[in-house]
Amino acid sequence: MSNLTGDISEVKFLTVAEVAAVMRVSKMTVYRFVHSGQLAAVRVGRSFRVSEEEVNKYIEKSFFQAG
Q: Beta 47-51 vs 42-44: how paired, if at all?
């Protein structure tokens, strides 16, 4: 996360449910991404938060050319 070196108050964090909605996958899929290290997250108590920037990066690097 490039914002960690700057002002962290500018970072927008999403819940697992919000990430799942943005990516149109299940919450379990998001948890798998987090636990496997594919998606960087911050643990807050018993839940995880993912920066919006990380979600966008993951989606961008997942694009591929079909046909």
A: antiparallel
> What is the maximum span of the chain, computed from C-alpha positions, in angstroms?
45
Q: What 3-state DSSP class applies to 27?
A: helix
Average pLDDT estimate for 28-43: 97
Whole-angstrom Cα distance, residue 37 to residue 5?
A: 21
In this prediction the pTM is: 0.80
Torsion of CA 52, 54, 59, 63, to 10 degrees: 150
Sheet holding 47-51, edge to edge: 13-15, 47-51, 42-44
Q: Is 37 left (phi over 0), alpha (psi -120 to 50) or beta?
A: left
